[in-house]
Design goal:
This protein folds into 2 domains: 47 residues; 252 residues, Orthogonal Bundle (MetI-like fold). It has 15 helices and no strands. The two termini are 51 Å apart.
Length: 328
Amino acid sequence: MTKKKKRMSKGTLIRKAKGFCAGLFRYVLIICLSYLILAPILINISTAFTNPRDLSFPSSIWIPARFSIENWHVSMLMLNYGKALPYTLFFTAIITILQTVSAMMAGYSFARLKFPGRSILFALSVFTIVVPPQMFMLPQYLFFKEFDIFGIFRLITGQPINLLKSGSLFILNALCMGLKSGLYIYIFRQSFRALPKVLEEAAYMDGAGFLRTFTSIVVPSAGAGILTVAVLSFVWNWNDSYYIRLFDDTNINYLMLAFNKATGSVDESLAKISTKIPATYAFLMKNPVYEGAIAKTSALLVFMPLVVLYMFVQRKFVQGVERSGIVG
């Protein structure tokens, strides 16, 4: 009995040691990854609140020696933040609504309706997830630049219609051709496939038509998928500058375009607002350290609305990802 107890205790110790090592490795890995992700953000935040005169001090890397909001003030002026922020919020919200509604209708069609070529069309929509968007952006651009329907416009006016810079992004997203639309169609299709058909059949038996069933039964039941797609669409369209530059490069009030233009040449951007910068910091113009601080602060200004959004929808968004069928 004593030998058995010794053997059992030995095996238990080995298992506990293995469990401890596995747990330690897990925590070390999590801490290292967290540091890699959070360190640049924390340094940017510290830099944004550092007095411009103290930017070269090594002691101000993590905690500012003297707090100041001057970097925020200059960055807002450089980005024209007062106009760019509300405009971008409104613009992105409209695109998000159009993209979510169109993807939801397409996803429901693929999940429930039977029509010729359904499998091929769904395969093509999934194909857009895998293929780099640059492959079909040029055809989209040419399609909107020389828009024509069976040569009708060319026959009447002698030339095709140029739809660029006239709401082409809204048209793209309303027709399920926007950024990541293929992924959103897939998410909705998986969500609707998981929805019991009994609910729709009961609605039909009660006399509801197709549209009434879709709006009253299907849409409320797809709340998780709608939230997931809406958040993803808003974030990706907020961060997008390629589509905006390609289809509407005159949209100077768009925040991401303003950010790219300002940070692409910080010295020139600062020179344009030099009269609004306090004279006490005029000597910092052309200083690479100061320009870097302004660029970092500008990045935080662009990034901040997304953090606020995620703070409000974080719990429901995570639940939506779990229930929307992305992994199913």
